[in-house]
Amino acid sequence: MRRARRSLHPPNITLGAPAMLSWYAVGLPTVATRLENEKSLETPPVMLLLLFRASLLQFVAALALVSSPLWADGPPNIVFAFADDLGRYASAYADPQHPSPNDVIQTPHFDAVAREGTLFDCALISAPSCTPSRAAILAGRHFFRNGSHSQLHHPWMKGFEDPWDEVKGFPLILQDAGYHIGWSYKMHLSVDRMGGAKRNYRPAGSKFNRFSQTAMAADDHDAAKQKLLEEVRQNFSAMLADREDEQPFFYWFNPTNTHRAWVRGSGKELWGIDPDSLQGRLPKFLPDNAVIREDFADYLGEAMAFDAAVGVLLDELRQRGELENTIVVVSGDHGAPGFPRGKCNLYDFGTQVPLAIRWPQQFAAGRRIATPVSLIDLAKTFLAAAGAEPTADMNGQDLTPALLPDNADHESALRGYALCGRETHVDEARPGGLPYPMRAVRTDEFLYIVNFAPDRWPVAQPPLSAPLLGAKPGKDVRTSRRMDIDYGPTRDFFTEFETSDSIAAAWELGFGLRGAEELYAVKQDPDQMHNLIDDPQYAAQRDQLRALLMKELKDNQDPRLDNDAFDRPPYTPVRPQRGVPAVD
């Protein structure tokens, strides 16, 4: 039975409350116990330091919660605005010392959430591909633990037990706690984990997903944009109208307009982004030419459309008097599509996403956090705010201690690193339909990557212009072949000039074979172009990060470590002719 919001008598959270007990039973083992459990000859000092720091300061932060209720006016609503394929692009991230596309984009609504809440400088996803990224967030655990949902479109062979079946996920836990849950637009997951298809609220339609296509086709661009934003409002209102009385709600807003394809020239036409304003601001591994600048400008235009939609959600909450007791979170599921080293890659360009969290009644305002966090942390954070307990299988960390206004040492309450990885994105990128297996750990100073199959091509078996065996005659070979890079002008550019000396270095960085290990000093090398793995100066950091990553993978029973289980059924069917280029 659903419960109405308790508005007059907020709970007295004490050591006896279930939410408080979960701090100790799940998230806050004592420092001594945790260190004793982790202590071994194989545990490098940096790992013990991280464990000590996280445990001690989480414990201190928890003590601050014992005497203070989290709720100011009943359990909070939660609105999670989550853009498809949106990397770390918002004007709040503009930095005069580091020219970037953030200097060009304008996102006033994201900026407002960040200004009135907390802005995360280094938020990462679990996997730079839609299904595994979203599944990891919902489950609150690493992508590789999610069986059929650990790869794009959740492939799984019948007759095998599926680890995804054991996942409940935070939305259903919220529902059990009395929340009304719903979403609009894309889910890319088993909809039963969001209460079923009836909870997909789209009575006004789904044209927002094709924002630039719809607006550019209209005679009056501004009128068309407003109509699309009104669709967002009506869909959100339909979800709110379906709840009981003042029942708290969780709404997952999932537009796909930032996913390709968008209309060429729409960034300038609809949003006033001059492609030439990006000159000198693109990542250094991308050729800084007119084709790629225009492509990126169009991408940023779609990001501005998403931000306008966030503004609609905020306005609707404000008009209903719900904004002040609503946790608003704005983010994206991975990096930019259709550009090398972005989506499907473990460099920051592929894994970093925007993240801002606002809850003015309880969370700090104007805070900025540089320490890496993972979006799998959101599950425990939402549940803690709602007074609900997480499941024991969640890997994420409750971010609440880092968000509380009275926690002066808020960043030290965080674990200090995030894990990322990937397996299969599309099953035609390599012969046999095999994945490109990668895992990484990101700290505030380093990115360490393991490529488990360095003999495989990370994007696609070249030549990129070659069709696949069995391709239908008459198709444009430049656009008919699926790869681990989305279709678009930038991909076409690299395909057309893949043998040209003029882009040889950029092609190699984006499409060439990679070593078994990669190490980057991210502060000195923000675009991760200089692999330090064999540099003796960084041998200690390499060994420490390798040990940290492998321990996390082993502790969580990553199937990749089980004789490369992702390369065979039930994860990957045996299809030797799949993804084989037709080369003379």
TrEMBL record:
Keywords: Hydrolase. Residues 76-388 form the Sulfatase N-terminal domain. Pfam families: Sulfatase. The keyword Hydrolase applies. SUPFAM superfamilies: Alkaline phosphatase-like (SSF53649). Residues 554-584 are annotated as: Disordered. Residues 554-567 have a biased composition (Basic and acidic residues). GO terms for molecular function: choline-sulfatase activity. It comes from the Bacteria. Its EC number is 3.1.6.6. Belongs to the sulfatase family. PANTHER family: SULFATASE (PTHR43751), SULFATASE ATSG-RELATED (PTHR43751:SF1). This is Choline-sulfatase. It comes from Roseimaritima ulvae. The lineage of its organism: Bacteria, Pseudomonadati, Planctomycetota, Planctomycetia, Pirellulales.
